[in-house]
Amino acid sequence: MKFPYAQILRFCSSGAIGVLLGYLILIVLTEEVGVWYLASAIVASIVNYTSNFLFHKYWTFKDRESHEIHRQIGKYAAMVVFLFLLGITLLYILVECLRLWYLFAQLIVTGVVTVISYLISRRIFANEKTAASSP
């Protein structure tokens, strides 16, 4: 099995749209509106994950099938909840315990969550041929 460079590039570039929008929301809510950084991060995460489902299904993983979409939505939602809780927990630890600046901490969290998200999403959107060839 060859390394999926193109797929990873599509995953990162399509995910970047949601991430940039999320960061914009995080900064505006925290800096301009005065919302607590964790509440801002919650709103930003919801926007990010909502926008990424369709990009990843149809463009990143080129999954055009619709008969599995309900199962995929369920699995994707479970992944989002897991990654959301992981991300918020890591953000809290990095800011409150390690005293990192919230935006730097969010960059670290984004990197960790991106890797885990790719690995899980690959399984969610795998078609039968892809799933059969995966270990």
TrEMBL record:
Top-level taxon of the source organism: Bacteria
Record InterPro entries: GtrA_CellWall_Glycosyl, GtrA_DPMS_TM
Residue stretches making up the GtrA/DPMS transmembrane domain: 10-124
BP GO annotations: polysaccharide biosynthetic process
Keyword field contains Membrane: yes
GO cellular component, one term: plasma membrane
Compartment(s): Membrane
Record field: transmembrane: 7-29, 35-55, 76-95, 101-120
Record key words, sorted: Membrane, Transmembrane, Transmembrane helix
Pfam family, one: GtrA_DPMS_TM
Membrane topology: Multi-pass membrane protein
Primary location class: membrane
Similarity comment: Belongs to the GtrA family.
Protein name: GtrA/DPMS transmembrane domain-containing protein
